[in-house]
Design a protein that fits this description.
There is one protein chain. With 291 residues, the chain is an alpha+beta fold. Helix content is 13%, strand content 31%. It has four helices and 14 strands. Strands 1-3-11-8-13 form a five-stranded mixed beta sheet, with no helix packed on it. Strands 4-12-7-14-5 form a five-stranded antiparallel beta sheet. The protein has a four-stranded mixed beta sheet with strand order 2-9-10-6, with no helix packed on it. Strand 9 and strand 10 form a beta hairpin. The protein is globular and about 45 Å long. The chain starts with 13 loop residues before the first strand and ends with a strand. The mean pLDDT is 94.
């Protein structure tokens, strides 16, 4: 059942914007959705059998001022404070990145009460000034993702546990394991192409998320593009400061837990004129519990 956040006194701030979702397709009854993440030569295989469509005027509510009304267990996401002690330039150095990843491991462990947290991946995104209009060339950095999706399924999370933990995996997977993403801007306050989060308590795990294969040059992974449903509730954090991190769940082995959180970025019509293009860092962590 969807939760009802406690709003502060005063008007609730919202923005109306288009978002992109996976289009339903009867083909998926007989063929699993897939997408190649590298060029496919020869034309014998389509790069993807998925189509996306835009849904206009999605309401996204600004949680600025009542961030603490949301938590991981109920909604699948939370906003936490973190003084990294790092400067902008540090996020472009190996030592600075290493320091940041260790700090968010400690932050997650403290917030969740988990017995172990392993951050295993990170990515810096810098929006090109012309994006989402293509430049026709490869970007220097990854760009914001505008399709609503979860990065992983529960099954793929278990595969990742086995990939990382080897012989320990069977014991670890008998207990609760979560895949949690950690996201923050490198410059702030940030309003340009912010992160939009769908409240996990409004997501039907069995109907709204479509497992899809992503074919990489060296392996296949599985994520979950999202179907539109009017019951979904979407949120974002305005004027996102560099000292604020958003943590949001992507999978959870506890069957009674709320869904992983579909997410994407959006062109924010309320972004101040002249604000620099978004720069952000995101990371992925496997979170292990003793029970």
């Amino acid at each position: 059942m969807a939760s009802s956040p406690i709003y502060p006194e005063g008007p609730i701030r919202t923005v109306q914007t288009p978002l992109y979702f996976l289009k339903p397709n009867k083909l998926f009854n007989i063929e699993k959705p897939y997408a190649f993440k590298f060029p496919v030569e020869g034309g014998r295989v389509r790069p993807s059998n998925m189509e996306t469509g835009v849904v206009e005027d999605i309401t996204i509510t600004d949680i600025r001022g009542y961030e603490k009304s949301f938590n991981m267990e109920t909604n699948g996401f939370a906003v936490l404070s973190l003084n990294t002690g790092l400067e902008y330039e540090d996020f472009h150095q190996e030592e600075g990145i290493f320091s940041y990843l260790r700090k968010i491991e400690l932050l997650l462990k403290d917030y969740t009460g988990a017995s172990r947290v392993d951050v295993f991946w990170h990515c810096v995104r810098k929006r090109h000034p012309r994006y989402p209009i293509s430049t026709g060339k490869k970007y220097d950095y990854e760009q914001p993702t505008t399709l609503a999706h979860c990065d992983v399924t529960a099954e793929e999370a278990a595969v990742e546990v086995r990939r990382q933990r080897g012989d320990e995996a069977d014991v670890l997977l008998k207990k609760r394991v979560q895949w949690i993403n950690i996201w923050k801007p490198l410059k702030g306050p940030m309003n340009d192409f912010p992160l939009a989060l769908c409240d996990g308590s409004t997501v039907n795990k069995n109907l709204d998320l479509e497992p899809a294969d992503l074919l990489l040059p060296d392996r296949v992974t599985e994520n979950a593009p999202t179907y539109y449903r009017p019951e979904h509730k979407w949120y974002y954090l305005s004027s996102h400061e560099v000292s604020e991190v958003i943590i949001f769940k992507q999978s959870d082995s506890l069957s009674s837990a709320c869904s992983g959180v579909p997410h994407c970025s959006f062109a924010n019509p309320l972004a101040p004129v002249g604000e620099e293009p978004r720069e952000s860092i995101e990371a992925r962590a496997l979170v292990y519990y003793d029970e």
